[in-house]
Write a structure and sequence with these properties.
By secondary structure, this protein is mainly α. It has 3 helices and no strands. It has helices spanning about 5-30, 50-70, 75-100.
Length: about 100
């Protein structure tokens, strides 16, 4: 990815790792079970444009899922976490859109 776009994507990846840690802690507090996702999947063999398009829609879908989860939980702390993560996902979609607009 040309220019400073790589830094933006690395920042998004760091956000996603923080999200996983926060959700893992919330899950542990609710269930007593420590969860961490499996190792990172293999990198796709498609081009950058296709990867960015797919990630854009995944971020949008993730934001929607967090907002839906926030509406279904009775736990105020969990609702706050879901809404915060939804905002992050929307920001990530905006970053990806901006990268595509500059390519």
């Amino acid at each position: 990815i040309p220019g400073g776009n790589g830094r933006a994507l690395m920042g998004m990846a760091a956000d996603e790792r923080r999200h996983a840690g926060r959700l893992s802690a919330a899950y542990f507090l609710l269930s007593g079970v420590k969860f961490w996702p499996p190792a990172e999947p293999e990198l796709p063999r498609e081009g950058w444009m296709a990867i960015l398009r797919r990630r854009y829609w995944a971020e949008r879908k993730g934001a929607e899922a967090y907002r839906t989860a926030a509406g279904h939980t009775g736990d105020s702390a969990l609702r706050e976490l879901y809404l915060e993560l939804a905002g992050d996902e929307e920001a990530h979609a905006g970053i990806i859109r901006g990268i595509l607009e500059r390519l």
